[in-house]
From TrEMBL:
Database matches in Gene3D superfamilies: Dimeric alpha+beta barrel (3.30.70.1060)
InterPro entries: Dimeric_a/b-barrel, YCII
Protein name as annotated: Uncharacterized conserved protein
Domain of life of the native organism: Bacteria
Length: 135
């Protein structure tokens, strides 16, 4: 089994087929979308392929270390950034092909007008082992 991160981009990915921003959906369309996501996760829980998933707030702050005894440096929030991640799901599947299959299904979540979004999802494998350095 291998773990993969499925990233849902609100901005920064190629445009979806049904490219109406979520803030312009009706409450019913938002509810239908969330229900699809919950049903998808429940189905994967049943097959043992679901690990975790969360929706994310559009607000975020960058933080970095600024030296011993000094407070961290922050910059943000950045709700206007080019790339905005709307949420993520971690799956544990038998193969890369299965990860792609599930990402394709998740891409069909309904959006405006109840039609599938056909959004682009980013599929990222977890690192299985740290890289080694050879001389």
């Amino acid at each position: 089994m291998a773990k993969y991160l499925l990233l849902k981009h609100y901005r920064g990915a190629p445009a979806a087929v049904n490219d109406v921003p979520m803030d312009r959906w009706t409450p019913e369309e938002v509810s239908a979308h969330i229900q699809y996501m919950q049903d998808f996760a429940t189905r994967l829980e049943g097959t043992g392929e679901f690990v975790d998933g969360q929706a994310l707030s559009p607000e975020g702050t960058f933080v970095r270390y600024d030296g011993e005894g000094r407070p961290p440096v922050t910059d943000g929030p950045f709700a206007e950034t080019k790339d905005l991640i709307a949420g993520w799901m971690v799956i544990d599947v038998e193969s890369y092909e299965r990860a792609l299959q599930l990402a394709g299904e998740l891409s069909a979540a309904p959006g405006a007008g109840g039609k599938p979004i056909h959004e682009w999802l980013e599929v990222r494998p977890f690192l299985a082992a740290p890289p080694t350095i050879t001389e």
